[in-house]
Specification:
The protein is an alpha+beta fold. It folds into two domains: 169 residues, Regulatory protein AraC (Jelly Rolls), CATH 2.60.120.280; 104 residues, Arc Repressor Mutant, subunit A (Orthogonal Bundle), CATH 1.10.10.60. The chain is 49% helix and 19% strand. It is built from twelve helices and ten strands. A hairpin with a 2-residue loop joins strand 5 and strand 6. Helix 4 packs antiparallel against helix 5. The longest helix has 22 residues. The radius of gyration is 20 Å and the shape is globular. The model has no long low-confidence stretch (mean pLDDT 82).
Length: 290
């Protein structure tokens, strides 16, 4: 049976709102929302590169099940396929938002010589505090980008905006490079690698042996390290990651429950339903109606 999937589209939410936004088609969108609760009231997969420069307020939520609490000012970088859920946003929240389409971002990032610090930051530490000077620099870049993108008569508008965004990322990358590195133990590094593996493979692999083999350690040792260095067991991280994928699909696509069960490699819809209810307390059908 053919899937009829409508992925969550953040740009549709932005363009249909009354908040300020300016764009070059769907390649680059700058917006300054007054309220974004309606965008983030359930877990969903990011379908774009999302940059947020928060200049006021507090944000609390989770990214790929990793909880965070961010107090302004901060820089937030998310890549496509990461799953975001907001739990709290202060009423005084103010931020500058930039979204880049997958196609545009792939082309752009391929031209950034050292993109790995940016990638690792978005995966392991997507929220980076900013100091006052850094906030002023981000605001300056944002103002220039607004002016360039708003110049509809400029035949080089897209190319100019592309180079400005590259400069934006290079500047942020230099801050990451010059920031004091946090010393991590081998166990802390193992936890981060494990969680990234789970995010990548949980749709197809739910057994602990798979991840232990990838990490070249025994399942017993992996269980012990994860339990001692995180707030959940390794098995719980895997189960919750699978459920997070399911929740995102239930809320942000029109896939049937059977299609979602197949996508997550369950042997049957019945088994998927029991699994989902064991973790969340409600059935997939009940969750979709919430």
């Amino acid at each position: 049976m053919k899937k009829n999937v409508i992925p969550f589209n953040l740009l549709d939410k932005v363009s249909s709102s009354e908040d300020y936004y300016i764009a070059i088609e769907e390649d680059i969108v700058l917006f300054e929302p007054k309220h974004i609760e309606s965008i983030l009231d359930y877990p969903f997969k990011i379908d774009v590169v999302l940059v947020v420069v928060c200049i006021q307020g507090t944000l609390k939520g989770s990214i790929n099940l990793k909880p965070y609490v961010a107090q302004s000012p901060f820089f937030l970088l998310l890549l496509p396929s990461q799953i975001l859920q907001e739990e709290f946003m202060s009423e005084d929240f103010k931020g500058l938002f930039i979204t880049l389409s997958r196609r545009f971002a792939d082309n752009l990032l391929s031209q950034i010589q050292d993109k790995f610090p940016l990638f690792l930051s978005s995966v392991n530490n997507p929220v980076v505090p900013l100091d006052k000077e850094q906030v002023n620099v981000m605001k300056m870049y944002y103002r220039i980008m607004k002016r360039v993108i708003g110049s509809n008569q400029n035949p080089y508008r897209l190319e100019s905006a592309k180079h400005l965004i590259m400069l934006f990322f290079y500047t942020f990358g230099s801050w990451l490079h010059n920031s004091p590195e946090q010393i991590q133990s081998k166990q802390e590094s193992l936890v981060k690698i494990f969680l990234n593996l789970v995010h990548t493979h949980c749709k197809a692999e739910r057994g602990l042996n798979f991840y232990a083999d990838k990490l070249h350690i025994t399942p017993k040792h992996l269980s012990k390290v994860i339990k001692e260095n995180s707030n959940m067991s390794a098995a719980a991280w895997i189960d919750n990651s699978v459920v997070l994928e399911a929740r995102a699909m239930l809320k942000s696509t029109n896939m049937t429950i059977q299609q979602i069960s197949d996508e997550l490699n369950f042997s049957s819809q019945t088994f998927f339903g029991k699994f989902f209810k064991r973790i969340t307390g409600v059935s997939p059908k009940e969750y979709r109606k919430l």
